[in-house]
Amino acid sequence: MYLFGEHAVVYGEPAVPCAIERRATVTVAERGDDRQRVSAADLTLDGFTVEYGASDDAPDVDVPTPLVEAAMGYVDAAMATARDAADRPDAGLDVTIESDIPLGAGLGSSAAVVVAAIDAATRELGVDLAPEAIAERAYEVERDVQSGEASRADTFCSAVGGAVRVEGSDCRTLATPDLPFVVGYDGTSHDTGELVAGVRALREEYDFARDTVGSIGDLVRRGEEALREGDVAELGRLMDVNHGLLAALGVSARSLDEMVWAAREGGAAGAKLTGAGGGGCIVALDDGAGAETALSLTPACDESFRAELATDGVRAE
Ligand SMILES: Nc1ncnc2c1ncn2[C@@H]1O[C@H](COP(=O)(O)OP(=O)(O)O)[C@@H](O)[C@H]1O
Ligand SMILES: C[C@@](O)(CCOP(=O)(O)O)CC(=O)O
Ligand SMILES: [Mg+2]
């Protein structure tokens, strides 16, 4: 999830994503043939299994192909890069995905699945990649699936864990104080690629949208100072501003605004949407119970929970 900087990070501004204790688990077993089988029970298509040959163009399933492509794009590309890393272009793989990360809701489920899938598949094919190498391949997957536009933020954070700072290709981990994250989730899901394309179109049409992206960068740099000082009140104020700037880029939603206001009025130091937006999740900072209670009483909010910072990134279990 993002403390600061989503969207602007795609245009080279810094961002600070944080890994939380919600995980995607990917199990990979090599097959005796060249076919790929993916079982993803948590997908919104109500759970389905796809089986297809490396060279077949149509998966053998009874749902519309564009839907399957949208759902399978990240996993498919993750398997392809893993086969490439192992120099085994024809390796058949059985892949099982389980995840407790809401899908398409701004908590980086795509990055978690892609990073875990690349790690599991390369291990199965006898290659041991460092987390940074997994992160780089996972970034390329997100970039390709999101039509050429992505940052390294989610994928680097997911691979190495903790709080990180990403600016272009410069990715590093950050020491942070213990932050009292509270998440509100409206139960909906949205496509990151489409929201990123919307911001691109706005930037092309309006100079002030470019300035808004630059302002998010300025805000993130101030946020880094507040992080170093452990100043939660200032972090909260900057999160509020970040939410406003994201709304100006057209990626908020009524449900997100309602949850953000509920969290603030419940006593949060600040609150903002996280990730691509359009719906999904907000993140707030609150060391008391007020924000979580206020969110649980908000009709727009489907689920609210505390989120612990995860110090571990990708790992074999
Ligand atoms: N449990 C899962 N099983 C299979 N694919 C998943 C799973 N979770 C996420 N994905 C993939 O990630 C996509 C959602 O990613 P994205 O739109 O970037 O949203 P976010 O990263 O904010 O959750 C899904 O459409 C699917 O392709
Ligand atoms: C909007 C963006 O900055 C973050 C998207 O995050 P998510 O997929 O909603 O977790 C895109 C990116 O950085 O690739
Ligand atoms: Mg994503």
TrEMBL record:
Main location: cytoplasm
Oligomeric form and interacting partners: Homodimer.
Taxonomic source organism: Halarchaeum nitratireducens
Gene that this sequence comes from: mvk
GO biological processes: isopentenyl diphosphate biosynthetic process, mevalonate pathway
Active site location: 154 (proton acceptor)
Keyword Acyltransferase: no
GHMP kinase N-terminal domain residues: 77-162
Keyword tags: ATP-binding, Cytoplasm, Isoprene biosynthesis, Kinase, Lipid biosynthesis, Lipid metabolism, Magnesium, Nucleotide-binding, Transferase
Binding annotation for ATP: 102-112
GO molecular function: ATP binding; magnesium ion binding; mevalonate kinase activity
Domain annotation GHMP kinase C-terminal: ranges: 225-293
Reactions catalysed: (R)-mevalonate + ATP = (R)-5-phosphomevalonate + ADP + H(+)
Compartments it resides in: Cytoplasm
Family annotation (InterPro entries): GHMP_kinase_C_dom, GHMP_kinase_C_sf, GHMP_kinase_N_dom, GHMP_knse_ATP-bd_CS, HddA/FKP, Mev_gal_kin, Mevalonate_kinase_arc, Ribosomal_Su5_D2-typ_SF
One Gene Ontology term, aspect cellular component: cytosol
General function of this protein: Catalyzes the phosphorylation of (R)-mevalonate (MVA) to (R)-mevalonate 5-phosphate (MVAP). Functions in the mevalonate (MVA) pathway leading to isopentenyl diphosphate (IPP), a key precursor for the biosynthesis of isoprenoid compounds such as archaeal membrane lipids.
EC top class, as a word: transferase
Lipoprotein as UniProt keyword: no
Cofactor(s) needed by this chain: Mg(2+)
Protein name: Mevalonate kinase
Pathway note: Isoprenoid biosynthesis; isopentenyl diphosphate biosynthesis via mevalonate pathway; isopentenyl diphosphate from (R)-mevalonate: step 1/3
